[in-house]
Amino acid sequence: MTAILLLLHLLGATVWTGGHLVLAVTILPRVLKGKDVAALTWFEQGYERIGMPALVVQIVTGLWLAWQKMPSLALWFSAEGGPVAQLIQAKLVLLGLTALVAAHARLRVIPRLSPATLPLMGWHILAVTLLSVLFVVVGLSFRVRWGV
Q1: What's the pLDDT tens digit per position in 77-116?
Q2: Which of 25, 29, 119, 127 is deepest in the core (most CB within 10 A)?
């Protein structure tokens, strides 16, 4: 069961992080240069159909995998949980930050999206992309010891 959960988690991460990297590196520069709101909207509408379910899969499988590694919620938020608890805490912080950035974009930026507000949306895209890459790094840290 753990292997299936991990596979689903990694597939979700691939879609989520890969999609944001494509958006940030290829789509966003063209959108900003041409002030092309329609191109950004077109990409976002298509990507959301696969990106949001991928994020939900990551959240569900991530919590399940964390529970398998440490079946005590109290230890998740305790210094006594050791390195595994620290990684779980890092993932939860990244999730919270992602939710805040996404909520701000969805409620404040996207409803007013225009050529003038594209740079602000660009910062949101870059923030979520950086957070998604950090998710991958922290996730890999469950399996790999850095600097050893």
Answers
A1: 998 999 999 999 999 999 999 999 999 999 999 999 999 9
A2: 127
Environment class of 75 (CB within 10 Å of its CB; exposed 0-12, middle 13-18, buried 19+): middle
Long-range contacts, stretch 122-129, CB < 8 angstroms, 24+ apart = 122/28, 122/31, 122/32, 125/20, 125/23, 125/24, 125/28, 126/24, 126/28, 127/101, 128/20, 128/98, 128/101, 128/102, 129/17, 129/20, 129/21, 129/23, 129/24
Query: Which sequence spans correspond to the domains of the chain?
Result: 2-141
